[in-house]
Amino acid sequence: MTLYLSRLKLSRSPSARALGALLNPEDHGRRLDAHHRLLWAVFTDGPDRQRDFLWRAEGEGVFLTLSARPPQESELFERPEVKPFAPALGQGDRLTFALRANATRTEKKGTVSATGKEQKRHIDLVMDRLNGVTGQSNLPKGERSARPEQRMELAQAAATDWLSGLGARSGFRLIGAEVADYSTVALPGNRNPKKKPQFGILDLSGRLEVADPALFLDCVMQGFGRAKSYGCGLMLIRRA
Description:
- InterPro entries: CRISPR-assoc_prot_Cse3 (IPR010179).
- This is Type I-E CRISPR-associated protein Cas6/Cse3/CasE.
- There is one protein chain.
- This protein is of the alpha+beta class.
- The protein has 2 domains: 3-85, Alpha-Beta Plaits; 94-239, Crispr-associated protein, domain 2 (Alpha-Beta Plaits).
- The chain has helices spanning 14-17, 20-23, 28-41, 125-130, 148-170, 213-222, and strands at residues 3-9, 53-59, 62-67, 81-85, 94-101, 104-112, 118-124, 172-185, 199-210, 235-239.
- Strands 2-3-1-4 form a 4-stranded antiparallel beta sheet, with no helix packed on it. Strands 8-9-5-10 form a 4-stranded antiparallel beta sheet. Strands 6-7 form a two-stranded antiparallel ribbon.
- A hairpin with a 2-residue loop joins strand 2 (53-59) and strand 3.
- The chain starts with a strand and ends with a strand.
């Protein structure tokens, strides 16, 4: 299957710039929601279309997408820059990567929904450690939001463990990774101030070794982690 790596940039036309506050709002959660809808606009070609693309915001109105179809042209964007994505990888190849991810683990709740499906909960791995659920947090309860360096240490440990396990299932071996940022976001419609945000985002970079080229590329297309509709999961790779 042919894949496409595309670069899209918001148009600077007067009509598009007039919508700037709607297309690129200051609030992080609303911005993710707006970008989610914006990217769908260039890939949706019918009411029953299933998502077959990943995307990543690069800032300054620029987006990268990996898709099974080229993006459609839109008055809201400049003409897309599109190129085929077909890296020739072999076992043992070493790559650098950048990944924005929502890293979670899934637990069964032990209950069944009205539709008969077993209910599950998705637990953010970094918040799990920050809250001491796994017993691995070293932060006193009152200091979990007051010690950024310790938050990043826990984020680093959680991300490394997650990527190592992910690699074993996805055709690569992690050589090393670094967390540049960890943030939590509440999307519109889930902004109850009494509830903690449940949407965690890790910005990662690092090096890996390809173990199974076919499996790895298939996983790159599928994306890593959850929240793919909101700009997570796209792994950008290049030869080390």
